[in-house]
Design goal:
Blueprint (H helix, E strand, L loop, with lengths): L5 E3 L2 E3 L4 E2 L8 H9 L4 E7 L12 E4 L2 E4 L8 H11 L5 E5 L5
Parallel strand pairs: 3-4, 4-7
Antiparallel strand pairs: 1-2, 5-6
Length: 103
């Protein structure tokens, strides 16, 4: 059997694939589903210190050759996201995507 484990910056992964930050990692349950489906790790949605509503719609459009989105980093804030992390972390490797912005 082929060995697929890898090490990224000291983080050992049984499988090399990771789910990038985006729509599949908004809740603890969705992160657990991705891990159970075979992801070696999941990167959380980007979380800031304070809640952020993001941009008003439309924030997704089709262009020649693909799609562009500009969601505006919508998130509930770090405190409200804690329960989602608590649900996901026991099930596998979770990499937090955090951002800062001037006040």
């Amino acid at each position: 059997m082929t060995e697929l484990s890898t090490d990224i910056g000291g983080l050992a992964l049984a499988l090399p694939g990771m789910v990038a930050s985006g729509i599949m990692d908004e809740t603890g349950a969705s992160m657990v589903r991705m891990l159970e489906a075979g992801a070696g790790a999941v990167v959380t949605k980007s979380i800031g210190l304070l809640p952020n509503a993001g941009h008003e719609n439309p924030c997704f459009t089709e262009v020649k050759g693909g799609y562009i989105n500009a969601m505006g980093l919508p998130n509930p804030g770090i405190e409200a996201f804690g329960p989602e992390m608590a649900e996901a972390v026991p099930h596998g490797k979770i990499i937090g995507s955090i951002y800062g912005r001037p006040r």
